[in-house]
Amino acid sequence: MAYDQTNIFARILRGELPCDTVYEDEHVLAFNDIRPLAPVHVLVIPKGPYTSLDDFTADAGPEVVGHYFKVVGEIARKAGVAETGYRILSNIGGHGHQEVPHLHVHVLGGRPLGRMLPDARG
Ligand code: 5GP
């Protein structure tokens, strides 16, 4: 799927829309989710034009991918959730229920988060 330059995170990266930045470097931006689902809910995005973890891991080099995940861990530690535990989550495409077509990892924590998914097995 071609990258959509009009998506909301592309607009944040271009400075057209504001965000509550918690971390920024040359390759990565992290900011608080506008509708937090937990006391800590940070979105971590690469600055490159990647739609999801699928094209990112296929097309970006190992240093870029590695740096991105180093930053995810660093943000969790800085947010104070590494000791109590937290969840990272990245929705990909239709079945993943991805709403914004720019790769993002959610860092969620600050309270017990329950099971990973509703358990349809009962
Ligand atoms: P997805 O379902 O694509 O994994 O999640 C997209 C996330 O982006 C949602 O948690 C939503 O609250 C968040 N979001 C959508 N628009 C904005 C925005 O303009 N600013 C911020 N900070 N978060 C947004």
From TrEMBL:
PROSITE patterns: HIT_1 (PS00892), HIT_2 (PS51084). Pfam families: HIT. This is Histidine triad nucleotide-binding protein. InterPro entries: Histidine_triad_CS (IPR019808), Histidine_triad_HIT (IPR001310), HIT-like (IPR011146), HIT-like_sf (IPR036265). CDD domains: PKCI_related. Residues 8-118 form the HIT domain. It comes from Tistrella arctica. Transmembrane segments: none annotated. A motif (Histidine triad motif) lies at residues 102-106.
